[in-house]
Amino acid sequence: MLASPATPLRFSRLLLTGAAGGLGCELRARLKSYCDELRLSDIQALKPPQAQAGEDIQLCPLQDEDAVMALVQGVDAIVHMGGVSTEQPWAPILAANIAGVVNLYEAARKHSVKRVVFASSNHVMGFYRQDEVVNAKSPPRPDGFYGLSKAFGEDVAQLYWDRWGIETVSIRIGSSFPEPRDRRMLATWLSYDDLERLVMAALTAPVVGHSIIYGTSDNQASWYDNSLAKHIGFKPQDSSDVFRAAVEERQPVLDRADPAVIHQGGGFVKAAPQG
Ligand code: 15L
Predict the structure, then answer these.
(1) Which bin fits 74, alpha (ψ -120 to 50), beta or left (φ > 0)?
(2) 123 lines ligand 1 (CB under 6 A)
(3) Residues of the chain with pLDDT > 70: what percent?
(4) 89: phi > 0 → left, psi -120 to 50 → alpha, else beta; which?
(5) Residues of the chain under the 70 pLDDT cut
(6) For the chain, which residues make up each domain, given as ranges?
């Protein structure tokens, strides 16, 4: 957690969707320091389920248009971590990530919310090879229904900026876990502290329009070029390099004919939708 007790409150009320998920839980504890009230939502119970001081919890399925409209009322900005976050059959993705993201932006438009931080994913670009470098203008090459839905979410963000002036930073999150789990994650890893830095930079940068940024720490190995996102002011402080020796020892041999080793999306490029 980065904010100190002296951190100025920048927002009256922030909305964090997906607050029961892995990154939602991390951000729940961290975003509180930056606002008077943190509104939290998910479809499942949070851990802990009770609202703590400065929190307001509203369980809300993203595909429920009316519920999302009520959820968004009165917030200054939205950190949208909600929805399906792995490869799954089309039906749940359609509900949460396609209908859900449109419901969220419609609610933002009607309630005059001016900024959204959208949790997109590296899987928008999963079919690029690991020996290619991609930037914010590289054409999407999603690696499944999940990546496709995140590409759609980014397009929705672009539409709501172009037509209604709602700003979004779409963060193509790499792999945000306590540590990189395999060789691929040496390039895609995003520490939790850097996630917080990135979300706060995305919320507070003066002008973002609709910007796309790759969400990784300062890893030596990388196939992401964030030079088009300098205006966001994100400066990662952590690096996967400190885990490199341990990761390579755990995974000494790579099958270079394996599509999961060749492509940026790793195992997602061959994941069958579960269900
Ligand atoms: C994602 O988008 C997933 O939400 C996360 O669970 C990881 O698998 C990550 O990508 C990754 O690519 O490592």
Answers:
(1) left
(2) yes
(3) 97
(4) beta
(5) 4-9, 274-275
(6) 11-270
Please give the full DSSP string across 191-215, using - where no structure is assigned: -HHHHHHHHHHHHH-S--SEEEEEE
How far is the centre of ligand 1, averaged over its atoms, from the C-alpha of 174 (Å)? 6
210 bridge partner residues = 168
pLDDT, tens digit (0-9, with 9 covering 90-100), for 87-115: 999 999 999 999 999 999 999 999 999 99
Measured from the Cβ of residue 2, the count of other Cβ atoms closer than 10 Å reads 14
Task: Please tell me the distance from the alpha carbon of residue 61 to that of residue 82, in angstroms, as a whole number.
Answer: 9
122 lines ligand 1 (CB under 6 A): yes
- Write the residue with the smallest CA distance to atom 9 of ligand 1: 175
Residues 67/55, Cβ–Cβ less than 8 Å: no
Catalytically active residues are 146
Percent of residues, the chain, with pLDDT higher than 90: 92
Task: Judge whether 51 and 23 are in contact, CB under 8 Å.
Answer: no
Task: Tell me the one-letter amino acid at 205.
Answer: A
* pLDDT tens per residue, range 15-26: 999 999 999 999
Q: What residues form DSSP beta bridges with 212?
A: 170
**Tokens 């759609």, residue located:** 152
- In degrees and rounded to multiples of 5, residue 187 shows phi and psi of -95, -30
| Whole-number Cα distances in Å, 32 to 15, 45, 88, 139, 187 | 10, 18, 31, 36, 30
What phi and psi, each to the nearest 5 degrees, are found at residue 37?
-135, 135
Domain 11-270 has CATH 3.40.50.720: yes
Backbone torsion region of residue 236, taken as left when φ is above 0, otherwise alpha when ψ lies between -120 and 50, otherwise beta: beta
